[in-house]
Design goal:
Layout: E1 2-7, E2 12-19, H1 21-36, H2 51-58, H3 61-82, E3 92-97, E4 104-111, E5 125-127, H4 135-148, E6 151-154, E7 165-174, E8 177-190, E9 212-218, E10 232-246, H5 252-258, H6 264-298, H7 305-325, H8 330-336, H9 341-368, H10 375-389, H11 393-400, H12 404-421, E11 424-426, H13 433-442
Helix pairs in contact: 1-3, 4-6, 4-13, 5-6, 6-9, 6-12, 6-13, 7-9, 9-12, 10-11
Pfam families: FKBP_C, Trigger_C, Trigger_N
Main location: cytoplasm
GO molecular function: peptidyl-prolyl cis-trans isomerase activity; protein folding chaperone; ribosome binding
Length: 444
Amino acid sequence: MKATVEKLDKNQVLLEVEVEAPRVQKAIDQAYRRLVKRVNIPGFRKGKAPRFILERYIGKEPIYDEAVEIVVPPAYEEALAEHSLEPIDRPEVEIVKVEEGEPLIFKAKVEVKPEVQLGPYKGVEVEKPEVRVGEEDVDAYLKSMQERYATLKNIEDEPAAVGDIVVIDFKGTVDGEPHPGLEGSNFTLELGSGTLVPGFEEQLVGARVNEERTINITFPSDYHQKDLAGKEAVFQVTVRGIKRKELAPLDDEFAKDVSECETLDELRQDIRRRLEERRRQEIDAAVRQAVVAKVVDAATVDLPEVMVRRRIAARIRELERNLQIRKITLDEFLKENGKNMEDLDKEFRPGAEREVKTELVLEAIAKAENIEATEEEVVAEIDKMARAFRQDPEEVRKNLGDLSFLKYDIMIKKTIDFLVENSVAVPPREGGVEEKGETAAAGE
């Protein structure tokens, strides 16, 4: 088989493939055997008519067409492999010549993955703060545990205060008309949590059980429901119940109740250890993201539109799945937010383009550094999945079927590991990642 390749515009190539005559003849013979079993020819049992009879009955073209279906797909794959081409779309195939006793010639125009011009990807500097957990972080975590394990006491004769949990029925109107989604019953709300629209919770402070209140609010101008953004609304609210948290004292008994620790001091040490581990994981994740971002920014690649559109489509499908959980259709979501499909395309496109570029750059680095998933790593990953799902590894392997996706994921992870191992850690600039990270680590 001979195959030549010509580069066209926009990551397209034109393959011209010539398949040797003996292979073509074998395909023609196979095509005859297939077709003769499908065609009813008077005077012959199905599958028994000689070839010249079949050709006289249906002509040569159907036999040649069937032969093309047999020989072209594998020849096309072989040509791609020979020239190390990775197609990203279906090819446009043109049969140039197919005759008995002659080579078959076809052309295939296809868009392939673009060449990536890599920038520096070794020795990339990235900020890496130290793992620091202060006493205030431990105190904040203990406070959150105290809140989590608080008991709730029904309040009958006292007004609701910030921090109390109220159970309410409510019904809202906009311009004097009821509006879908602005009503509910037995709704649980912690006053001061900022769960609802600004101004709503504040107007319930001081309310008593069974009290009815009229609450006036204005939806923010950037409210997610476009038809309510900036609108004034009136709610009729009935307080059905008030519960107040009772916090247990922070002592040794509390430590025994909420953990396996015997003393409060042991619990504080355990909290510090867990916060440090979480902080370490957050720093490692931030470093990985930062290294990849710098390497991707330094690279140049002509993004194929077909890959970007597929990524946008995947994001839209994910959105639809999330909406299904809320029992909302995509059309309803778009209408509710004053959007159309073009708006979604514009919204998702920057992220999709970034994902595609990142994927192409990491693949190029893996190729340059000969990074691949080994069989041992695949087996280890399958064993890990088997433990997670409590299944037999062979069952997991069988369910996975084609392991190419698993191998790809391992390759990408190893490539990022390689970039991190070859990066240079530098202290964070003042007021940078470290302070932000400590705040995040402390809160829960």
